[in-house]
Amino acid sequence: LLEFGIVVHSVVIVLGMGASQNPCTIRSLVAALCFHQLFEGMGLGGSILQAEYATTMKAIMVFFFAVTTPFGIASGIGLSNVYSESSPTVLIVVGILNAALAGLLNYMALVDLLASDFMGPRFQSNPKLQGFAYVAVLLGAGGMSLLAKWA
Is the pLDDT of residue 132 over 90? Predict the structure, then answer.
């Protein structure tokens, strides 16, 4: 579910970037996309390593994460002649997809990624680690919010 949400989310975001004709939009999306992919990759990579899948399945998951961004950009460039960023239909579809995927990714981040780490015995028995982890989560959420406001 996490992999699906990340893959579709990445395609939707970069599809708009590939279809965009505005250099300001492209610059801000490239900056946001670099940070976004970095942190998504770290989170997904950690969960892929912890998952008890066969090596082939892990390789397939990594492959799909790696190709979604270039695929979305290429699709956006290909659709740039028929895709209008300001079309009401496009705005509604992209808005609904982004909202649904953001909810899915928030759920997966809180329930699958953070909860499993925060509820482990090593974490629960170390108050210093708990404090550091809570501060790191708040700084990460604040940094991503700041990045979203800037982009």
Answer: yes
Using CA atoms, how far apart are residues 145 and 129, in angstroms rounded to an integer? 24
**Pair of tokens at residue 26:** 């492209």
- For 37-71, write each residue's pLDDT tens digit: 887 788 778 878 877 888 898 888 888 888 888 88
CA distances (Å), origin 109, targets 44, 122, 143: 10, 20, 16
Determine the residue type at 82. Answer: V
Q: Token pair for residue 135?
A: 């501060």
Q: What angle do CA 111, 53, 105 make, to 5 degrees?
A: 30
Per-residue b or e along 116-132, where b marks 16 or more CB atoms closer than 10 Å to that residue's CB: eeeeeeeeeeeeeeeee
The answer to whether the predicted template modeling score (pTM) of the entire model surpasses 0.85 is no
Q: Beta-carbon neighbour count of residue 21 at 10 Å? A: 8
